[in-house]
Backbone:
């Protein structure tokens, strides 16, 4: 086994691979780790998880930041479509749906 391959295994096992940052409403279409970097104020629905062909776990970490709606009827903070193996952590959702 070559040294480069061993190095990659070590990086992945130690969690040194960085996450994908986001700071606005988005659709997550790939298995990855995503980090929210600030509060989000939204008019309507916000996050959609639509990983049709998962290649591993999907982790969304809000790090205690808020995703805040405007009380619009029928809106969601997060929607899952065709997604398995998703972890949502440290998120605060406020003011979605009916007032």
Residues:
């Amino acid at each position: 086994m070559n040294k480069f391959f061993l190095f990659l295994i070590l990086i992945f096992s130690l969690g040194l691979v960085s996450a994908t940052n986001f700071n606005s409403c988005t659709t997550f279409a790939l298995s990855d780790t995503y980090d929210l970097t600030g509060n989000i104020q939204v008019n309507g629905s916000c996050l959609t998880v639509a990983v049709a062909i998962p290649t591993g776990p999907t982790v969304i970490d809000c790090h205690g930041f808020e995703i805040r709606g405007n009380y619009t009827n029928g809106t969601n903070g997060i929607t899952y479509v065709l997604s398995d193996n998703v972890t949502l952590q440290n998120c605060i959702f406020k003011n979605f749906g009916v007032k």
